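Let us work through a complete example step by step.
Step 1: write down the sequence.
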Amino acid sequence: MSTSIARDIQRLAGLDEPSTTLLRSFDLEWRCGTRFIKTLLLAGYNPPAIGTALTEALQRYQRMCQQGVADYERLKFVLGHLYRALERADQRPGDELTARWGRHAYVPSEVTEYLIQTYGAAEHV
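Step 2: predict the structure and record it as tokens.
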């Protein structure tokens, strides 16, 4: 288990312990997702907005797991929820960064494409 990534995200985004516990569960299934989230935070994208959005998304993610929602759909939901929060803060990453970070974190190309198609055309570098 990648506890250090979860702890890094907790520290950078200001997550509480219950959210960090949910993040560890998310990390077990989607380590690529936690790597992507950590990259967003290290790049300086609005940590308070990411922390709040992540707390909301992880609670919903847990319910989605219990309801049997498909794996990729859950990952798209979590990362998409973060992108929506960054969009509201007028700080979402551009398409090139999203593609590069997706490859670097090994996010499935279908999910990276979803982020680009849904939240693309912003050029914040």
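Step 3: interpret the result. The chain is about 80% helix and 0% strand.
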